[in-house]
Amino acid sequence: MATNPIYVETEEEIPEVVERLRRYRGDDTMLVLPMRSRIGQSRFNFQLLRNYAARMGKRVTVVCDDPAVQKMASESGFPVYGAVGPLGEGIASEPEEAPPPRRWWQRRMVAPVTHVGVAAPTKLLTKSATEIKPGRFLLYTAAALVLLVGLGAAAILVPSASVTLIAQAQPFSERDVEIQAQPGKAPIRVRASVISQSDSQGFKTTGVKQVQLAPATGTVTYSNAFSPPSCPGPNCGSPGLVMRVGQRLQNSNGLLFAQTTNIAPYGGVLVPWKQTAQANVQAVLPGSTGNVGSNTITTIIDSVYDPTKVTVTNPQATGGGSDPSSTPQMTVTDFDAARAQMEQQFHQAIAQKLQAATQNGEKLSEAIVFDAPQFNTDHQPGDTAPSFTGTMTVVGEGDYYFDSDVTKAFQAYLSQRVPNDQELLTESGTQVTYRLLSANKGGNLTFVGSATAFIAQKLDESKIRAQIVGRPVTSAKIYLQTLGVKSVVIKESPMTLPLMPVLSKRIAIHYVVESGAVPTTTTPTATPSPGPSPTPKP
């Protein structure tokens, strides 16, 4: 129980008491109301007090010695006491004692009171003065009843009130929202279509294989039929004959070759007695003419030895001799360029086919999913060829969706996140901006975007009418200002009355929400809804 009650003055109104209650530190408090307190004159005041106390988390006890005030406070849900004890505790009021019953012998005649200065009548009134005429009495009574009924009907049926509640809308948005979509699943309808494209195309090679002028080369075999010299003698101890480097040889067509083998310390090639030795030779004149057949190089030019004893031949044909020339050649760059060209052409062709297959209301995804191309050529890089043929197969998937479905999905996402005490102003429109974030095989799409709209305080018009019907206009306005609106305007007709109409259907509520422009968004690809305007809610 509170130890520091709040003593309310007789002239204090609800706003002043609420402010004192807000400043009070503690959850439990007492409101001590004096006799004839303005707050205690209306049950509606206690209802307002109860609502404010509940919002502030205060537990309020009402203390008043007036039974009527205690009854209204108790009916509004407050604990009630008649007085405050010395320790701050509540003391209940003592019930009024019923008057003792009067017995028949205690009854007595009450003597008539005679006013001083007024003489009592000395004779009875005449009959005509006191006679009651039944017909006229009934007429007067009926007229009075009709007048009362008319006045009552007029008081109930004629007065009407127009309540205009003006609220300021607030922007509400959700940004960087990702929404998934795939075929066969709500809320976005998706259809996947797969197209395969195959074809062959010819390409020219751009590489050139250069052949330089080069002499032919080969190998010859020297044969030494001489026996080792006897000693003593001119060549005693010599291991064999030496064929010097540069030794000229000739083939059967008169082409000259020169020995190129030079083995130290002989300065050429040693041909042992009764044995053979090999040496490398090169055509004296470069060119393809130096490419001669086997066993055609048989002559040793300027030989000092017996040609029947020292001979030469080439067991294999010479080769490598070439004339200067250039030949077209396929390069790696040719292969890559052909592949890129065909892939681009196939992608464009598939995209055009997919676009042409768009059905009514559908939108083709900007990102078409392509498989890796299958590419083969009849020549490979390094081959000498003036041209080559490439064959490619490409498979592409296009995903179709409905733009209206995506917009509704973002709008639904936004509406699901509106606070419970607020309502989305759909009349003002919702601005949605989005773009396709990714597209994967099988029609799996991911959209990212933002949704922006306006919200305002949610009002229960039937509850509002029930709270203000038949109430004083001032009290009704105080209650309406607690609904979180910007301003309240009450107009009564046919005249201004201190009370609201007693019939709820005679109270018209107009909820007007004022809003500005929808904030702009920075999402690249946008699908806007209509912009907002001041929104009346009848």
Task: Explain the overall architecture.
This protein has 538 residues and is an alpha+beta fold. Among the domains are: 6-91; 192-207 and 328-401; 213-230 and 239-323, Elongation Factor Tu (Ef-tu), domain 3 (Beta Barrel), CATH 2.40.30. The chain is built from 9 helices and 30 strands. It has helices at residues 14-23, 43-56, 67-75, 127-130, 134-157, 332-356, 403-415, 461-468, 473-481, and strands spanning 6-7, 28-32, 59-63, 80-81, 83-84, 90-91, 160-168, 170-181, 190-204, 207-211, 217-224, 240-244, 248-251, 256-259, 268-272, 276-283, 297-300, 310-313, 325-329, 363-364, 369-370, 374-377, 387-401, 422-424, 431-440, 444-457, 487-493, 507-514, 526-527, 535-537. The strands form 8 sheets. The chain has a 6-stranded antiparallel β-sheet with strand order 17-13-14-16-11-18, with no helix packed on it. Strands 8, 24, 25, 26 and 29 form a 5-stranded antiparallel β-sheet that branches. Strands 9, 20, 21, 22 and 23 form a 5-stranded antiparallel β-sheet that branches. A hairpin with a 5-residue loop joins strand 5 (83-84) and strand 6. It is rod-shaped. The two termini are 47 Å apart. Residues 108-132 and 520-536 have low confidence and may be disordered.
